[in-house]
Amino acid sequence: MNPLVAPESQPRDARTALSVNLNKVALLRNTRHLGIPSVIRAAEQVLNAGAQGITVHPRPDERHIRAEDVHALAEFLKAWPQAEYNIEGNPFHNLIGFIEAVRPHQATFVPDNVEQFTSDHGWNLPADLERLVPVIQQTKALGVRVSLFMDPIPEAMAHAAQAGADRVELYTEAYARAFGTADEDAVLAQYVRAAEAALAAGLGINAGHDLNRDNLTRFLREVPGVAEVSIGHALIADALELGYTETVRDYQRCIQRAFAPEAAAR
Ligand SMILES: CC(=O)[C@@H](O)[C@H](O)COP(=O)(O)O
Ligand SMILES: NCC(=O)COP(=O)(O)O
Asked: In which pathway does this enzyme or protein participate (predicted)?
């Protein structure tokens, strides 16, 4: 699947794109002044291994991805025209400056506060609708697709479409926490309902947060129409053990298994 193709034109059973979030590579690098591990080298390796895109979340405190990384990745990705560049952040803090300067394929708007430990909630719609409309219009006018980070609330999806978003990113921590517990089926059903509502509203669907090699396949098998998953923390942790190449291939097998069980069994 080409992640640059508009989600609405993708068939429901199209393979989900894997965007690798490199925040945690930068986090480790930032503990010394040696430039290792290299975010660019990581991007090169995960793309060579078959990832379809790169995600970064340049937080205002630069705890991991720094402004210079956002620009260096944009330069590097010019040599990878099929790869999608996804930049996450709060459009009312520092995100829009990056979007204007870099014009990635996708901007994911996340309602984090400045010192947030990690993302832990989606936009509150319709309450946030009015203030989101101008920044969505501004971003789309730059030719950048807009995705809104959302809790799996079916009723909110029509409001995301009304705000002008192209996609929603379903915030998957609740599913990841429930995975392997008695709550798994019920929580997953909530994501299915949210995805159905998003599709009915004409939105594309992304998903992310705490997805991993254990929970990914079932999520993609059950939740309809997921165009892209962005995965960082668990994938980079796996890569410390397996290396980037084997790790990305394994995540791709998890995705493949969701769509073609017999092929992934080989
Ligand atoms: C938007 C989102 O889902 C986050 O997962 C985020 O990109 C992770 O941020 P940290 O790496 O700073 O925890
Ligand atoms: N948008 C989610 C993301 O980019 C990565 O989240 P995580 O895998 O680091 O939890």
From this structure: Cofactor biosynthesis; pyridoxine 5'-phosphate biosynthesis; pyridoxine 5'-phosphate from D-erythrose 4-phosphate: step 5/5
- How do residues 170-222 score in pLDDT, each as one tens digit? 999 999 999 999 999 999 999 999 999 999 999 999 999 999 999 999 999 99
The pair phi, psi for residue 94, each rounded to 5°, is -105, 0
Cα 119 to ligand 1 centre (Å):
5
For residue 134, say if its preceding peptide bond is cis, omega within 30 degrees of 0.
no
Ligand 2 binding pocket mutation candidate from 167, 209, 251 (most atoms within 8 A of CB): 209
In the block, which residue shows the tokens 């400045």? 114
Q: What class is the 17-264 domain? A: alpha beta
104 close to ligand 1 (CB < 6 Angstrom):
no
Which residue's CA is the closest to the ligand 1 atom numbered 10?
A: 118
What is the C-alpha to C-alpha distance for residues 257 and 253, in angstroms, rounded to an integer?
Answer: 6
3-state secondary structure of 215: coil
Instruction: Tell me which residues of the chain have a pLDDT lower than 50.
Output: 1-13
| 197: nearest Cα among 135, 244, 151 | 151
Q: Where do the structural domains in the chain lie, given as residue ranges?
A: 17-264
Rounded to the nearest integer, the mean pLDDT of the chain is 94
Quick check: helix, strand or coil at residue 159? helix
The tens digit of pLDDT for each residue in 131-141 reads 999 999 999 99
